[in-house]
Amino acid sequence: MLSEARQFVNWVRRTNPQAHTWKDYASDLKFFAGFTGDRPLHEISVHDVDAFVIQQCEQGFKPKTVNRRLTTIAAMYAYFSPDDESLVCPVYYSRHHLREPRRLPRPAPIDDLRRFFAVVDDPRDRAMFYLMLRGGLRIGEVAALHLNDLLLKEATPRIVVTGKGSRQRPIYLTEQSLRVLREYLDVRPASRDDHVFLTYQFKGLSTHAIQMRLEHYRQLSGVNFTCHQLRHSFATDLNEAEMPVTSIQSLLGHQWLETTMLYVQANDKKVQGDFLAASQKLEGWAA
Fold it and tell me: Does the residue 284 lie in any domain?
């Protein structure tokens, strides 16, 4: 199985070298091979997957992680099955998929955002975090941006983002985001590397490096939120501005509307109003 796993991971890496998906696949298959041993794919059965899922749960891995590893295993079998019709994937969604708890998204508090951006004095870093807050970009999407993804001279300035599954979507820029981005581009050093955001060695920033910049400013400002919470704030603000949920879905790059609906559930004004009205009646009765 190890040779097949390497072949599959190398194919994923060649297919989309800019993404880091292949690293996740390599890690997932390493766990699976460590459990099953280096056996041919034909010899791995549905019962082996049963035992693998149980072992992963006993080791404390979250359902989301286990499900991702199952998806990776299934993807590897799908890669080899066209050349071998007798190869059957041992992963069954209805049997192995674990139910994941659905947590409502939590935006970064407004006061924390003010304190955070008050100490972000580097034009590069300010532009990166603004694209998350006012464009809804994921941290990986920020790291993967290239200069030819920026369409700033169009009548409606926008950027083209490549998200999960290599799906592209346009992100329209607010006047504030456009100004902050141009302020950075004016001082961006010339480099052969065409990534938008560069290290001080003039190479593209990694997601880890962006996380480190976030941590630096969090310590300076005394706040505590994640890059993904900036994206949550973007979606929450649009929902509160009564943008149609399908438009929010497109801007976030969600494949399923159900995912976007979590923002509606977390900020349902009707539910809030109904509760306040009912609570006043209850408090009056108690008095």
Answer: no
For the domain that residue 89 is a member of, what is the CATH number? 1.10.150
Domain that holds residue 67: 2-96
Q: In the predicted model, what is the mean pLDDT of residues 164-189?
A: 89
The total number of structural domains in the chain stands at 2
Percent of the chain predicted with pLDDT > 70: 86
Q: Is the dihedral of CA 176, 180, 181, 186 positive or negative?
A: positive
pLDDT, tens digit, 9 for 90 and up, residues 187-220: 999 999 999 999 989 999 999 999 999 999 999 9
Measure the CA dihedral 167/173/178/184, to 10°. -20
Q: Are 145 and 77 found together in one domain?
A: no
The pTM score is: 0.61
Residue ending a domain, choose from 96, 124, 159: 96
Same domain, 117 and 237: yes
Residue 273 lies in a domain: no
As a whole number of angstroms, the distance between CA 164 and CA 57 comes to 26
Residue 238 CA to residue 135 CA, distance in Å, equals 11
Give the 3-state secondary structure of 212-266: HHHHHHHHHHCCCCCHHHHHHHHHHHHHHCCCCHHHHHHHHCCCCHHHHHHHHHH
Whether residue 124 contacts residue 188, with contact meaning beta carbons closer than 8 Å, is answered with: yes
**Distance in angstroms (rounded) separating the CA atoms of residues 112 and 6:** 44
pLDDT digits (tens, 9 = 90+) for 45-55: 999 999 999 88
